[in-house]
Amino acid sequence: MGDDGRRARVTYAGSMTGSPTTATASNAARNSVSLPMAAALACTVVAVALTGAAAPLAIADPGALVRWGVPIAGTVATIAACATIGLLGLATFLMPETTRTTRRITATRLAAVTATVWGVAGLVRLILVFADLAGLPLTSENFFSQLLAFVWQLESTRVLLLSALLALATALGAAMAKGRSAMAWCLTAALTAVVILALTGHAAGSASHEDAVNALAAHLLGAVVWAGGLIGLAAMRGQLGRDLPVTVRRFSTLALWAFALVAISGIQQAWIRLGSVDGFSSGYGAMIVLKALALTALGAIGALHRRRVIGALERTPKDTGLFARLVAVELVLLGAATGLASTLARSAPPVPDVPESPTRILELTGFPDPGPPPAGAWITQWRVEWLFLAIAVVAVGLYVAGVIRLRRRGDDWPVHRTVSWILGWALWIYATCGAPGIWGRVLFSWHMIMHMAVAMIVPLFLVPGAPITLLLRALPARRDKTWGPREFTLVLVHSRVLRVLANPVVAAAIFFFSLAAFYWTPLFELALTTHTGHLLMMAHFLLTGYIFTWVLIGIDPGVQRWSPLMLLVILFATISFHAFFGVALTDSTTLLAEPFFTQLNLPWGPSPMEDQHTAGEIAWGIGEVPTLILAIIVAVQWIRSDANESARFDRKADRDGDAELTAYNAYLARLREHDERTDA
Q1: N or C: less crowded end of the chain, CB within 10 Å?
Q2: Under a CB-based contact definition with an 8 Å cutoff, are residues 453 and 447 in contact?
Q3: What is the C-alpha separation between 528 and 522, in angstroms, rounded?
Q4: pLDDT digits (tens, 9 = 90+) for 500-553
């Protein structure tokens, strides 16, 4: 990172095409953005005109400027977002850097420009969307005063405002960033600004709300990474020179994952919004077909990149003609797909956003009344949470791929670690998609079962799997100042943040006090009533449980381990606090999340207060078993460490003839002789 702080005008050494300056890079970036932007805007205009998405409204029409402006502003914001994320991704993870180049700085400063365009377009889109929702022309009296009064109260405008502000924050950060860590934080902010947009649109109002939101978030994430990477490559192609092949190869792997994410999430979205095959006969269905065709064409070009173009670039780095032509075609197709996506957001899908006659339970939880748990519910009842299932499948798949890579290299990996990792994610699937996930949405007792399983039982199996050790052994190290998965993991496990969080006292405090803070604050009700709150809750349960378990029995590299004796003291203190939590919940006379459970008004099952007392008993009973197992494991590790230390001393004694003991005995003998002379 030594040269990251140099001015961006410094050029790279050994270029194949001369010495491009920052101005040249800016021109390339402008050209790489203008191509997909033009295609996207053209498709947006044509699609809106053909589908009638901008037709005048019979009641409360906001005017033609608003009707046409919403999809156009959305298109501009999307392309600018793609460019921002692509440039930051190249700077942080993909582009090799040398001692005489500042490609990373150049790409980051260009990202600051595109992020500014993104933020401004996002604010314009926000204004237009509010006008559309309110049915007010922009020239209406007191329009902006009403905008300021209601912009935070409406979910659609609130999310758009947050996204635009994050984009502008990304622009500010990218304008000042010099190191990879700062660039990574800018990239995180940019990705967050895109993902939260899934909370608006058709998906947010869908009857299959959570599946639709998850699918849209995955779709947006895959699309911006894919399109953004292409834009970034086109913008930085002149500065990469002989490093273009390795950068393209790295991006190709990332693009393959993005393609799979876009394809799978797109299929799920289409099924939710179309409902059946008959939905393809609608204008909305026609737009989906066109998007699918564009995706198929892009996939074919991507396969051509992997089979022919990358190898040709590695053989003759100067010959970039085929690569440039294919990238240009890809950018046009991606721009067209973006324009179609903006049109889809303005078009009515065949399946209505809101189901007919929704029940109160459906309104509060997003799911129909599951009814009382039948006999055998522990095993037989399932409701797939696709996001949680996908996380588990990907985690297991990557782990197994790492083990296979080690085996092919001739290295061993303990089977019990693999089995432990797979069992941990199997328990995760059960807790989120099985009976605890179903009735945990309406019953406090089942929610507590899910909580205890995710936070205390699942980590008991995941931590012994040693995923960090496997990753470090399976992946090669990079030597070109870029962050691959291996380098990023090392930075993370040795970061100051993790050093604090992995302190046993801090980890134990977070594990317990966040438990109490969650249930005795409005956070509990937020997690029960909102999709975002539910996701954050599950992530918090898993991460806090994993870190707490890791600092106690983990074998992965990281922060310095405390002595087993101190770990046992902390563990037993945590057990005591956890028991206190269960007793407090059991004896409480105040109903937690009272508005939710009162409005839920289940026609079956125990009363909310009775169910809360049962939840306290579950927290006390189930929670003690994993902690006891942790105590046993820590004690066993203590015994093993003592045995290993004794064996080490024995081996040392065998090598040096027990020199240490001999020296100690000689020292005692000298002391005895000194004492005898003194007595005499």
Answers
A1: C
A2: no
A3: 10
A4: 888 888 888 888 888 888 888 888 888 888 888 888 899 999 999 999 889 888
Q: Which residues, including other chains, have CB under 8 Å from residue 492's CB and lie 6 or more apart?
A: 498
Give the DSSP H/E element, type plus range, for residue 269.
helix 244-274
Q: How many CB atoms lie within 10 A of CB 594?
A: 12
Other C-beta atoms closer than 10 Å to the C-beta of 66 total: 22
In 3D space, the residue among 70, 353, 338 whose CA is nearest the CA of residue 228 turns out to be 338
How far, in Å, are 108, 456, 538, 579 from residue 622 at the CA level? 50, 9, 18, 10
End-to-end alpha carbon distance in the chain = 71
Residue 187's contacts (CB-CB under 8 Å, 6 or more residues apart) are 85, 88, 89, 92
DSSP string, 49-64: HHHTTTPPPSSS---H
**Contact by Cβ (8 Å): 245, 305:** no
Compute the distance between CA of residue 309 and CA of residue 307 in angstroms, rounded to an integer.
6
Residue 678, number of CB atoms within 10 A of its CB: 7
Instruction: List Cβ neighbours of 316 (8 Å cut-off, separation of 6 or more).
Output: none
Name every residue whose Cβ is closer than 8 Å to that of residue 407 and which is 6 or more positions away in sequence. Answer: 413
Question: What is the rounded distance in angstroms from the CA atom of residue 224 to the CA atom of residue 230?
Answer: 10
The encoded tokens of residue 542 equal: 């898993």
Average pLDDT along the chain, 680 residues, taken 10 residues at a time: 36 36 60 74 74 69 83 88 92 82 87 94 92 84 85 85 94 91 92 84 52 81 87 84 83 86 80 66 70 77 72 69 73 74 65 59 79 82 88 94 92 92 95 91 91 91 93 87 85 86 86 84 87 88 91 81 80 81 86 87 85 88 78 76 56 60 68 69
Of residues 222, 250, 257, 223, the one with CA closest to residue 236: 250
Closest CA to 177 of 230, 107, 236: 107
Give the position of tokens 């022309």. 137
Q: d(Cα 636, Cα 298) in Å, to the nearest integer?
A: 55
Residue in 519, 497, 501, 521 with CA at minimum distance from that of residue 510:
501
Total residue length of the chain? 680
226 vs 58: CA distance, rounded Å: 40
Q: Which residues of 106-132 are buried (b: 16+ CB within 10 A; e: fewer)?
A: bbbbbbbbbbbbbbbbbbbbbbbbbbb
In whole angstroms, what is the distance from residue 76 CA to residue 116 CA?
12
Nearest to 445 by CA among 586, 624, 596: 586
Axis crossing angle, helix 564-587 with helix 504-519, rounded to the nearest 10: 10
CA separation for the pair 165, 171 (Å, rounded): 10
Q: What is the pLDDT of residue 561?
A: 75
Of the candidates 494, 486, 502, which has an alpha carbon nearest to the alpha carbon of residue 546? 502
Q: 36 phi and psi, to 5 degrees?
A: -65, -30
Q: What is the pLDDT of residue 18?
A: 37
Q: How far apart are CA 519 and CA 541, in angstroms?
A: 12
